[in-house]
Amino acid sequence: MFNIMMIKVTRYNSPGLDLGYYLCTSVKPEVRRGHLYEILGRYFDILKETAAKLGHPIDISFEELHIIFQKKIMLGFWFAICLATGPAYSVIQDIDITKMTDVKDFAVQFDILIQKWIVDHPKEADESAQVVLDLVKECRDLSIE
What sections of the protein cross the membrane (predicted)? Predict the structure, then answer.
């Protein structure tokens, strides 16, 4: 089975962002691929139960949660990449957040900077490229943005 540790770090935010971040940082690819709907279902059940216990029940369906997840997975992916890789950590400090008006601006700026880093550091880039590319493809396949 898999571990549902995400519940301990869930914060007031978009459930889709929490799920995207969790799935990209804490779940092995084979588990994510093989149990995605089971993980989403478990998260959904615990989210609704916890919100109700706190006196703030939420009125969304599993299908609505799935759509929210699909809309936010790429942002969760970028946050995960920023925290999980040296190259990403190196370039994120050069992103000017004050110029952002939309979440998509972050992805665009990050992409430009990471592409430059790859050109400037070809050996280091080759060492981790396949894992990152696989994750990008998987997240894009899941995303509806």
Answer: 73-92
**Residue with tokens 């008006």, as numbered in its chain:** 101
Comparing CA positions, the residue from 70, 92, 91, 82 lying closest to residue 139 is: 70
Instruction: Tell me the per-residue pLDDT of 81-110, one tens digit each, with 9 for 90 and over.
Output: 666 666 766 776 677 766 666 766 777 777
Closest CA to 106 of 118, 119, 117, 91: 91
pTM of the predicted model as reported, rounded to 2 decimal places: 0.56
* Annotated domain spans of the chain: 6-142
Query: Do 74 and 24 contact (CB within 8 A), yes or no?
Result: no
Please state the length of the chain.
145
Distance CA 51, CA 57 (A): 5
Q: Give the separation between CA 97 and CA 103, rounded to whole angstroms.
A: 10
Other beta carbons within 10 angstroms of residue 114's beta carbon come to 21
